[in-house]
Specification:
This protein has 475 residues and is an alpha+beta fold. It has helices spanning 5-60, 64-70, 163-199, 201-212, 231-278, 282-311, 326-343, 362-379, 434-445, and strands at 80-81, 87-88, 98-104, 109-112, 132-138, 141-149, 155-162, 322-325, 347-352, 357-360, 385-393, 396-402, 447-453, 460-466. It folds into three domains: 5-172, Beta-Lactamase; 231-311, Helix Hairpins; 322-470, Heat Shock Protein 90. The protein has nine helices and 14 strands. The protein is rod-shaped.
Length: 475
């Protein structure tokens, strides 16, 4: 099932914002509740002190009935207008939820508001030692009560307020906070959807560029400025195109080379086969068939070398490397070539440090050594000598292949590493790919190869130097 980054980001961001907003609103609710309680507690205390200041002189004169009548709290008091403009028993609807009482130290009720019961708002508050705030149930409702005695502890003022007043105010504050949040959420979702879509537009642009590309177009993509998050994707795509381009070029080059190089051997095979068919003399026929066999061998060798060269990827960094005893690996390679050397009566020797270790790919290194030794065998005349040596120079491991062949002039020593290049006038059988394979393996194996004419004496020395990152010290 396909997933949408845009949808996933939208859901994630909305859930995150909703969660954070919900936690913020919850904290705001509790904070508002606390602040409301603090404010109303302060108002209760202030109201009690104001009542005490106003009523205490009259109470000291001993005429509470007159005060009761002055407060308009008698049952015969006429109706007043409430906050909605309608007649009611009280001036405001909240007055039912506010109450006060005045008691003396003998627990006699002297004054009370119309909303207050005749029983004490706080029974425990009638004791002189009990002052301050308390929560009390009065007429099945929870009230907040503040108790204040005068300094002579003769009169007690109890001021009370129902808790639902506070809760209503807290709920109103919370609702006013929640309403904008709920209204903003869909707007925020639309803005996030549009913003994410705009942010992902470079990805769509890259996708469109890839879709519109011709299958044969492997050039680097030019998509203009892209965000840093998308740049690695474009870079990797361009590197992939470059690798594919090189791979196709190698394939095309291999096809072209095969068509070019196999044309002559195949033509020669056809000619020799025709000679064998037309031959009337058995000796002539046998000679033609021998030439056919030699031609097949040359074509097979050419094809093997070309396939080896095609398999070597100069851009590859994924060759498996391991510690290799160089002397032992060279001995295995030489053992495969000894029969060919014996056919030419060539003395093939291996000497040097048997404990030298290099870090390289065993298969690639064996191909490199085989091509160097095979090249030496091909160009060394009968009765010659080839010496393979493993040693060290300047703290680096070195392998040399020294022959007694004709050597190569200094100006051609770099040219012979080119594909299919052969020294003019050289009649030795070959296809001109051996040293090209050596050079290509050397390039990807962090080793260097150089050719040095022997001095004194005839012949050539191929010197392979293993550089630091591809070499382990002798163990």
């Amino acid at each position: 099932m396909a997933t949408s980054i845009r949808r996933r980001l939208l859901i994630t961001l909305l859930l995150t914002i909703s969660l954070v907003s919900g936690l913020t609103l919850l904290l705001s609710y509790y904070d508002a509740q606390h602040e409301v309680e603090e404010l109303f507690d302060a108002q209760l205390a202030q109201s009690a002190k104001v009542l005490q200041a106003l009523l205490l002189p009259e109470l000291l004169q001993g005429d509470p009935e007159r005060l009761q009548s002055l407060l308009h709290l008698s049952e015969n008091f006429p109706m007043v207008i409430d906050s909605e403009g309608e007649a009611g028993a009280y001036g405001h609807e909240y007055e039912r939820k506010l109450a006060f009482q005045v008691w003396d130290n003998e627990k006699n009720l002297l004054l009370k508001s119309a909303s207050a019961p005749k029983a004490p708002l706080s029974e425990a508050g009638l004791e002189t030692h009990n002052r301050g705030y308390s929560d009390e149930y009065v007429q099945d409702s929870l009230w907040r009560v503040f108790k204040l005695w005068d300094k002579n502890e003769r009169f007690l003022i109890q001021v009370a307020e129902r808790y639902d007043v506070r809760e209503e105010l807290t709920n109103d504050i919370s609702n006013r906070l929640l309403a904008p949040a709920f209204l903003a959420l869909p707007i925020l979702g639309i803005m996030i959807w549009m913003g994410v879509g705009r942010g992902l537009s470079p990805v769509q642009h890259v996708a469109n560029e890839v879709t519109r590309r011709d299958p044969h177009n492997l050039q680097a993509m030019e998509v203009g400025p892209v965000p840093v998050e998308i740049r690695p994707l474009v870079t990797e795509l361009n590197e992939l195109f470059e690798q594919l381009r090189h791979a196709f070029e190698r394939e095309r080059r291999f096809t072209d080379d095969a068509a070019h190089e196999l044309r002559t051997p195949l033509a020669s095979l056809k000619t020799q086969a025709q000679v064998a068919l037309r031959a009337t003399d058995e000796k002539q026929k046998q000679q033609a068939l021998n030439q056919v066999i030699l031609g097949v061998d040359r074509a097979a060798h050419l094809l093997e070398q070309m396939l080896t060269l095609a398999r070597i990827n100069p851009e590859s960094n994924e060759l498996t490397r391991e510690d290799i005893f160089l002397h032992a690996l060279a001995a295995d390679v030489i053992a495969q070539i000894v029969p060919i050397a014996l056919n030419k009566n060539i003395n093939l020797e291996l000497s040097g440090d048997q404990h030298a270790i290099v870090t390289a790919n065993a298969l690639s290194l064996s191909i490199l050594i085989r091509n160097l030794v095979d090249n030496a065998v091909r160009y060394t005349p009968e009765g010659g000598e080839i010496v393979v040596t493993v040693g060290k120079e300047a703290q680096k491991t070195v392998l040399t292949v020294t022959d007694t062949g004709p050597g190569i002039s200094a100006e051609l020593q770099q040219r012979v590493f080119d594909r299919f290049y052969r020294v003019v006038g050289n009649n030795t059988q070959g296809c001109g790919l051996g040293l090209a394979i050596v050079k290509q393996i050397a390039d990807i194996s962090n080793v260097s190869v150089e050719l040095i004419n022997n001095d004194p004496g005839p012949g050539l020395t191929a010197k392979v130097t293993f550089n630091g990152s591809g070499v382990s010290e002798n163990h």
